[in-house]
Design goal:
four-stranded antiparallel β-sheet, 14 strands, 373 residues, six-stranded mixed β-sheet, alpha+beta
């Protein structure tokens, strides 16, 4: 038994093939909504093929299903992938057995659907294919890397020679290439830039995203972070940080809505003593980072640096600076990092991140807390 599942009002050639399908004893039914409460009609775009034997009561034996983009044509299934045209992709899943009555909960089919080849006018070809959009030409690089102090753009490692490739400034003028191969960006760090190249002498432009030093692609500028928010920020790792675009609850104030003495995001009561707040923050960092899996350690180093740099304008940072000591130095101690990160001097990625944070906080020349280094 062969059944075609289609969109009845837009099934193209199937609409005109009704008599031939009926003669071949193929059924044509409308796609259904497998998750809908009333199991109504559902527009179908993806293609699927389900096959099984029916040799036992209520069960489909040797069932398999293809899910993918390939049309049921020679081009969709029989032609090899070439250098031009569509690339069809799909997966084939196999099961040991499957109850027939559960099939309609997994695929857009309805049990005992009416055969539309028996109903005149039930199948319509639908509108013709829309005209193709102009060709899209991919740029020679998928992204650019952002270097800071001063802001510069760099081609991805391994880009090689790109010929007449140019990066355009905000006013559309090409940026000169420095001796080190970077492009000076005299503006706030961008999330994306426009590039220009000329394959076969035909100029083309495109917008490519920028990868910042925290590993964010086309990342938006993040808002400043306060000490009271640090624990929540680190607890959400490895999820990306909030970009502060969400609207605030009308009944919620900036300080949490419960006054200055209320609990913060992590449940701790904020202290009025800057040094105590600083040490509580360092304890929070140490407790969290000693549990970070080794595979996530590079991402953690970037996230920690990002969070602490966002805190540079927080009042406790300036207050502790006036004491002339650098509490961040204790984070370099072995007991403040996971075992696999080793002892001081053995994890350059982590220590370089702390060095940049100390520079952002203007703590670099201060006395290390407790004589650590």
């Amino acid at each position: 038994e062969i059944t075609l599942v289609v969109n009845p009002t837009s099934c193209q050639e199937v609409a005109s093939a009704g008599p031939a399908l009926k003669k071949a004893h193929w059924r044509v039914v409308a796609s259904a909504d497998p998750a809908g409460p009333k199991r109504g009609l559902r527009t179908l775009h993806a293609k699927f093929i389900f096959s099984a034997n029916d040799r036992s009561a209520g069960n489909a034996t040797s069932p398999w299903v293809y899910l993918g983009s390939g049309n049921l044509t020679a081009a969709g299934f029989l032609h090899r992938a070439g250098n031009a045209g569509n690339l069809e992709a799909g997966v084939v899943l196999a099961l040991e057995t499957l109850a027939w009555n559960s099939l309609c909960r997994r695929l857009p089919v309805e049990k005992d659907s009416a055969d539309l080849t028996l109903k005149p006018g039930a199948l319509l070809a639908g509108e013709s294919a829309p005209p193709r959009l102009p060709e899209y030409f991919a740029p020679p690089v998928a992204f650019l890397e952002l270097l800071e102090e001063p802001p510069r753009l760099k081609l991805p490692t391994g880009s090689g020679s790109l010929g007449n490739f140019e990066i355009l400034s905000l006013n559309g003028q090409p940026i000169m290439v420095a001796v080190d191969g970077t492009y000076r960006w005299d503006a706030p760090p961008p999330s994306e830039v426009r590039v220009r190249w000329s394959p076969a002498g035909s100029p083309r432009t495109a917008v490519v995203p920028v990868l910042d030093r925290f590993g964010r692609l086309a990342g938006k500028p993040l808002p400043a972070l306060d000490f009271i928010d640090l624990e929540e920020e680190l607890r959400s790792f490895p999820n990306p940080p909030e970009d502060d675009d969400e609207e605030q609850d009308p009944g919620e104030s900036d300080d949490g809505g419960e006054g200055a003495g209320s609990a913060g995001a992590g449940g701790a009561v904020p202290s009025n003593y800057p040094f105590r707040e600083m040490m509580q923050a360092i304890e929070t960092i140490a407790a969290r980072q000693t549990m970070v899996p080794e595979a996530q350690w590079p991402a953690w180093c970037a996230r920690l640096e990002q969070a602490l740099v966002r805190m540079k304008a927080s009042p406790p940072v300036a207050s502790v600076h006036r004491l002339g000591v650098n509490p961040l130095s204790v984070l370099r101690r072995s007991e403040f990092r996971p075992d696999y990160a080793g002892s001081p001097g053995s994890c350059q990625l982590y220590e370089d991140a702390l060095t940049r944070v100390e520079a952002a906080w203007d703590y670099s020349g201060l006395v290390p807390l407790g004589g650590t280094s």
